[in-house]
């Protein structure tokens, strides 16, 4: 019998009518003979209201333990309402919060951003199968955990998404369905570009990067629990239909891709163009990259400043690019000179946790400083950090950084 884990976000259960529509969509799948586990967030804006009330009444004196208990009331209320609506529609349901004997998500004692004990969670999750065999639909709090000594914890931002994929994995579900306020993943924000198109599918890696860069659809941490054998999709609540195709999330989360350090195997060369007021020269960068692209030369990095623009290229291509770009220097009044620099090593670090790790660049660069290794250039995004250093220091730097991460 097919098993579904359906997670409803706060907006999708934002009022009574939406809750009933969501519950009806669950009942519809149940009546098709499917087993359904429901995960719900706090009703729209409830958590924000609880945070505001706590801040105004207690302020900085609130403890993490107290705050976790207070914030848990949003999800605890949601599951009671949702489960009651399911029963009003003629099916058996049981709400499960951290006080319930069958509560599955076990964590450490970090109240505000708890770390999941996967083995114990997997063991506890099996208790939900007994309810499902009895034809009961369990409705479970998203976002929350319970420490081994019985204290309520929270999983941090996107915790309900984490709960859904985690339970999907532990229960060997066939489908994990994320119900939100959009009809799937769009080519861009439809509120900004009206002709944005819905994607039929998106890979786990693409979804993770999209979420990490600000798309408020799915939390990237949740994708760590995306099992390759489990179907997953994002759908909108408006249709009230869990069978809606939405956008499928395909592929597994690859930990080697999610967190890695790599040293480019060949030397990188530096080509630097010097001039005046370069940042205000419209189209200058496009002219540079077009020249290089037309010669089928790849660019690994660009550093732009007021008086210089530096390109990082494969050493084997650098001399050709150097001559091509020299012609541009002659033709452009804003450019005065070009140089071809020394051999450079390129180290790339990828980790979706970078965005939420204060001081991560310091952690990476301090070991290099202690060994007297100079950094020629550094670039970073929300999930990646790239270091360019002297070629002869590359292997030592690689070993140092791998030890840190």
TrEMBL record:
Gene3D superfamilies: 3.30.70.260, Acetylglutamate kinase-like. GO terms for cellular component: cytosol. It is an enzyme of class 2 (transferase). Residues 271-327 form the Aspartokinase ACT domain. InterPro entries: AceGlu_kinase-like_sf (IPR036393), ACT-like_dom_sf (IPR045865), ACT_Aspartokinase (IPR054352), Asp/Glu/Uridylate_kinase (IPR001048), Asp_kin_monofn (IPR005260), Asp_kinase (IPR001341), Aspartate_kinase_CS (IPR018042), CASTOR_ACT_dom (IPR027795). One of its GO terms (molecular function) is ATP binding. GO terms for biological process: homoserine biosynthetic process; lysine biosynthetic process via diaminopimelate; threonine biosynthetic process. Pfam families: AA_kinase (PF00696), ACT_7 (PF13840), ACT_9 (PF22468). It catalyses: L-aspartate + ATP = 4-phospho-L-aspartate + ADP. Its EC number is 2.7.2.4. Residues 3-228 form the Aspartate/glutamate/uridylate kinase domain. SUPFAM superfamilies: ACT-like, Carbamate kinase-like. Residues 342-399 form the CASTOR ACT domain. Keywords: Amino-acid biosynthesis, ATP-binding, Kinase, Nucleotide-binding, Transferase. Pathway: Amino-acid biosynthesis; L-lysine biosynthesis via DAP pathway; (S)-tetrahydrodipicolinate from L-aspartate: step 1/4; Amino-acid biosynthesis; L-methionine biosynthesis via de novo pathway; L-homoserine from L-aspartate: step 1/3; Amino-acid biosynthesis; L-threonine biosynthesis; L-threonine from L-aspartate: step 1/5. PANTHER family: ASPARTATE KINASE, ASPARTOKINASE. This is Aspartokinase.
């Amino acid at each position: 019998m097919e098993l579904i884990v359906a997670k409803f976000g706060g907006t999708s259960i934002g009022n009574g009518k939406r809750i009933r529509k969501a519950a009806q969509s669950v009942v519809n799948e149940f009546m098709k003979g499917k087993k359904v586990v429901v995960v719900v967030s706090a009703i729209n804006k409830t958590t924000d209201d609880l945070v505001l009330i706590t801040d105004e009444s207690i302020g900085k004196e609130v403890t993490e333990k107290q705050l976790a208990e207070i914030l848990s009331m949003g999800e605890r209320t949601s599951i009671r309402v949702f489960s009651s609506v399911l029963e009003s529609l003629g099916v058996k349901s049981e709400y499960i919060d951290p006080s319930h004997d069958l509560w599955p998500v076990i964590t450490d004692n970090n109240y505000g951003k708890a770390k999941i004990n996967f083995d114990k969670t997997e063991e506890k999750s099996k208790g939900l199968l007994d309810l499902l065999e009895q034809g009961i639909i369990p409705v479970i709090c998203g976002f929350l955990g319970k420490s081994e000594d019985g204290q309520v914890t929270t999983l941090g931002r996107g915790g309900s998404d984490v709960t859904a994929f985690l339970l999907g994995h532990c229960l060997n579900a066939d489908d994990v369905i994320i119900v939100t306020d959009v009809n799937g993943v769009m080519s861009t924000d439809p509120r900004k570009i009206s002709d944005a198109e819905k994607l039929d599918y998106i890979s786990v890696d693409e979804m993770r990067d999209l979420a990490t860069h600000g798309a408020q659809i799915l939390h990237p941490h949740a994708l760590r629990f995306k099992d390759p054998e489990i179907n997953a999709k994002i759908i909108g609540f408006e249709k009230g239909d869990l069978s809606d195709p939405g956008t499928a999330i395909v592929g597994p989360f690859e930990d080697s891709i999610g967190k890695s350090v790599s040293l480019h195997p060949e030397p990188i060369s530096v080509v630097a163009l010097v001039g005046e007021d370069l940042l205000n020269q419209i189209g200058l960068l496009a002219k540079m990259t077009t020249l290089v692209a037309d010669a089928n030369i790849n660019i690994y990095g660009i550093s732009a400043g007021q008086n210089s623009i530096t390109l990082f290229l494969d050493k084997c291509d650098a001399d050709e690019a150097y001559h091509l770009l020299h012609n541009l220097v002659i033709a452009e009044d804003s450019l005065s000179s070009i140089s071809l620099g020394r051999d450079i090593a390129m180290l790339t670090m990828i980790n979706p946790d970078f965005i939420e790790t204060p001081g991560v660049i310091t952690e990476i660069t301090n070991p290099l400083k202690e060994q007297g290794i100079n950094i020629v250039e550094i670039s970073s995004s929300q999930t990646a950090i790239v270091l360019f250093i002297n070629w002869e220091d590359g292997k030592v730097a690689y070993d140092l950084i791998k030890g840190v991460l």
